[in-house]
Amino acid sequence: MRDYNHYLGLVNEAIENIYYPSQPAQLYEPIAYTMALGGKRIRPVLTLMSCEALGGDPMQAIDAAVAIELFHNFTLLHDDVMDRAPIRRGKPTVHTRWNDNVAILSGDTMLTMATQTITRVDDAVLRPMLKLFNKTAIEIYEGQQFDMDFEQRHDVTADEYIKMIRLKTSVLLGCACKAGAIVAQAREEDADAIYDMAVNLGLAFQLQDDYLDVWGDPSTFGKEIGGDIANNKKTFLLINAMNLACGDDAAELRRWLACSDPALKQDKIMAVRALYEKLGLKELSRKTIEDYSLKALKLLGEVKMSVESHHSFENLINKMVNRKK
Amino acid sequence: MRDYNHYLGLVNEAIENIYYPSQPAQLYEPIAYTMALGGKRIRPVLTLMSCEALGGDPMQAIDAAVAIELFHNFTLLHDDVMDRAPIRRGKPTVHTRWNDNVAILSGDTMLTMATQTITRVDDAVLRPMLKLFNKTAIEIYEGQQFDMDFEQRHDVTADEYIKMIRLKTSVLLGCACKAGAIVAQAREEDADAIYDMAVNLGLAFQLQDDYLDVWGDPSTFGKEIGGDIANNKKTFLLINAMNLACGDDAAELRRWLACSDPALKQDKIMAVRALYEKLGLKELSRKTIEDYSLKALKLLGEVKMSVESHHSFENLINKMVNRKK
Question: Is residue A202 a contact partner of residue A174, using CB atoms and an 8 Å limit?
Fold first, then answer.
């Protein structure tokens, strides 16, 4: 079992070798641009790690790994159109640099490229791989739709939020790990346990995202603190606050939610953060993250793998959940 | 070999039986709405016809047929967003009735549903089917991009236009026929010939579309005559006119292209049509349609099938190419 950077190197090399036809340029340039933006590449790395941990040759899982990264980047591309996001990984998003139509059509193309790439796996594992991949894709669309629905609702529960982020972000981590297990032709119990492990890791990861937006250290976080608060984003924290706040606290929260004055942005961030703290959400948030990562570690313990592999995954879980950015 | 309506009945029944989860409603309702809009269902009918003509059981091809219709409707859904089209088959388009985000995400979901559906074919034909389906999808995106590129260009040649419509519309008819051949486990020569037959049929069909917009009979055409002219749509006719017109004709054409005054719409349609006729484009258009349908008939002759099946395809080609709407 090698370290993260070893797998990352394999993944990056494979991504650099993706072939893009030269014409139509407006179709393929945005795809090459998107794939070159980088990112942590956590999903394809998980696929290779999982394959090797379960006794497979990680290079046999490279197509599945690249397919999942292509798919992930397709979802970001279309999500950025839907969210009108101007920036992704420090660069203009595709719909900003080109236009909406280019973003829609390049995204469609990436989805089919991802499907073509996943199809390159061996005959022996083709059907379970397609089944996992397509099922995961559908779940992710459902998660994105729930996320958009939630923005229009005022009665979202914390359970609904967890269900939404499970669909929108966690199942793809599960898919990444299980894809590696499928290539390794692992026992079904192991494939399922490593899937569940990654789903729990994904939940912890997403809640950590929500946490860092509020209590992250501006010097290490990499983006502005408080963006979710400023934009009234329905995070784990805001949803819990809306459900828990009573009396004056509820009135104050409502007042800040109604305020979009840019001049009051810092005041809003400070006030809402103070409210979160008063409501005990900093502790609830840490505890929930801790619970999901403990669950991930427990599930990891159920998967038969070498001590060394186990250790690598354990490190990764701890790193992802305790990350500062 | 049964008639068109027999296959259409099988297709419509299968489409009615597609399962849509109830939640999230905003994701699945637009898909059910789109699939219920109907249409000629020419592609899935071709799949069943082709399968039966080549010795297969058409019901074994029903998943492939439905997958291709799902895929086709996904492309219409996303194209309508890109083209800002308000109406499709007499009803508001999804992005008009809901919104752009709903249209983007429902479309993505339809694409993955199509891929899931195509995957239901037998193991023996899974790989060639996926290869055909994914390759066709990529070609269609390329065609759509070329179509959008052409709207910004003034030097498009007739050959480029034919290449574009081959990608954007004809290869899916080819795919529909070849999918039936693959399920029937037909000989490769037959599968390829029926593919080429359908591609030529598709070219004739699309050129007939361009023709009917200008010279169709308003009482049978079903939509307003002259829409392409009014919108400066780069059809086979306009592209040829731009390349062939000289002197005063060229100046007149340019003048009308620059005119978007709604009050002059009928004048523009009459004038541009007269110019097309003066340039011999009515005859060129009929001759080109004739050439592609003759080529389709010739290729049909190369496919080994019963006299009865041959006759059914021949009828279909003649009907599609001589249609009035």
Answer: yes
pLDDT tens sequence across B82-132: 999 999 998 999 999 999 999 999 999 999 999 999 999 999 999 999 999
User: What SS3 class is residue B20?
Assistant: coil
CATH of domain A135-325: 1.10.600.10
Mutate to test the interface with B, among A75, A102, A108 (most CBs of B within 10 A): A108
Provide CB contacts within 8 A for A167, sequence distance 6+: A139, A140, A142, A143, A146
pTM: 0.95
- List chain A domain ranges: 1-124, 135-325
pLDDT in tens, A227-245: 999 999 999 999 999 999 9
Among candidates B21, B100, B134 on the partner chain, residue whose Cβ is nearest the Cβ of A115: B134
Determine the topology of domain A1-124 in CATH.
Farnesyl Diphosphate Synthase (1.10.600)
Query: Do residue A108 and residue B108 have CB atoms under 8 angstroms apart?
Result: yes
List residues of A whose CB lies inside 8 A of any B CB: 21, 23-24, 26-27, 78, 81-82, 100-101, 104-105, 107-109, 111-113, 115-116, 119, 123, 126-127, 130-131, 134, 137-138, 141-142, 144-146, 148-149
Alpha-carbon span B261 to B320, nearest angstrom: 35
CB B135 within 8 A of CB B172: no
Instruction: Provide the ipTM.
Output: 0.95
